[in-house]
Design brief:
The chain has 277 residues and is α/β, with parallel strands linked by helices. It has two domains: 73 residues, Alpha-Beta Plaits, CATH 3.30.70; 194 residues, Rossmann fold, CATH 3.40.50. It is 28% helix and 30% strand. It has seven helices and 14 strands. Strands 10-9-8-11-12-14-13 form a seven-stranded mixed β-sheet, with helices on both faces. A four-stranded antiparallel β-sheet has the order 2-3-1-4, sandwiched between helices. α6 runs parallel beside α7. The longest helix has 14 residues. The chain is globular and about 55 Å long.
Length: 277
């Protein structure tokens, strides 16, 4: 018998950036699927004993947001059906389209077909959107690329499409690893290696270009590893997954590692940044 789930229904005001912060914190607690609604968020976690306690979720006590929630037990969820109802195709800079197999094809330079399922990184979120913009501008032909925290592997796939020699895509999440494998095969890319794990897998590896779309705390923790793995003096490091107020912290850490801010993009409250030696 399929396992039942607990559905947590959150009412959030204002929605952003609280919704994105809440998703990140719930994911660390074991919630594995999310559906954004007009007034908040639905979050799902497999039912295993008592309902999880949310006292450690910091955003719930943030005075800048009003968040209430309740939960119910639901039958096993058809995640494919759920995301299909909420996933619309996206066009970025008129040259890169990201769509599902059931969407009409686009006439663009780069078209990526994905089924995100429980993984993150469809291109809809501001952080992924900006990283796609950076990749569309970057010189990738013959380069070695790392996509750290790859989610659906959409960035890895685009890097390969744009001429990268080899691409390594890593995510700590099992769903993301499996989904990345599916999406890479679906898009016919043979020079992408998918790995499950964390930055510990990078020991001894070198890359011309590193993409890390994760969150501020993980970025700050792993920046020394990224810097060590980046081929100098021409290497490029692209970071995303943080807010504008976090940028000084990242700039300071990068400066200590011999890297300087070269360019930044902003979308909503989110920022993506390019660093070079």
């Amino acid at each position: 018998m399929a396992q039942p789930y607990l559905e947590y229904s959150f009412e959030i005001s204002p929605l952003q950036p609280a919704s994105e912060i809440l998703i990140a914190e719930l994911a660390e607690l074991g919630f594995d699927s999310f559906v954004e609604t007009e007034t908040g968020l639905l979050a799902y976690i497999p039912k295993e004993g008592d309902a999880p306690r949310l006292e450690g979720i910091g955003i719930l006590s943030n005075p800048n947001f009003k968040i209430s929630y309740k939960h119910i037990e639901v039958a096993p969820v058809n995640w494919n059906e759920t995301w299909e109802k909420n996933f619309n195709p996206i066009l970025i800079d008129q040259s890169c389209a990201i769509r599902a197999p059931f969407h009409t094809a686009f006439n663009v330079s780069y078209e990526i077909v994905i089924e995100p399922k429980m993984s993150f990184g469809t291109g809809h979120h501001e952080t992924t959107h900006m990283m796609v913009q950076f990749l569309l501008r970057a010189e990738l032909k013959g380069k070695t690329v790392l996509d750290m925290g790859c989610g659906t592997a959409v960035l890895a796939i685009l890097a390969a499409m744009r001429g990268a020699k080899t691409v390594t895509a890593i995510d700590i999440d099992r769903w993301s690893y499996e989904n990345s494998m599916e999406n890479v095969n679906r898009n016919g890319q043979t020079n992408i290696e998918i790995l499950q794990g964390d930055a510990g897998l990078l020991v001894g590896k070198k890359f011309d270009l590193i993409l890390a779309n994760i969150n501020r705390n993980v970025l700050l923790q792993d920046l020394p590893i990224y810097a060590e793995c980046l081929i100098s003096p021409e290497g490029e490091l692209y970071l995303s997954g943080f807010f504008e107020e976090d940028l000084p912290l990242l700039n300071d850490k990068c400066k200590k590692l011999g890297l300087r801010l070269s360019e930044k993009l902003k979308k909503g409250n989110w920022v993506s940044a390019k660093y070079v030696f």
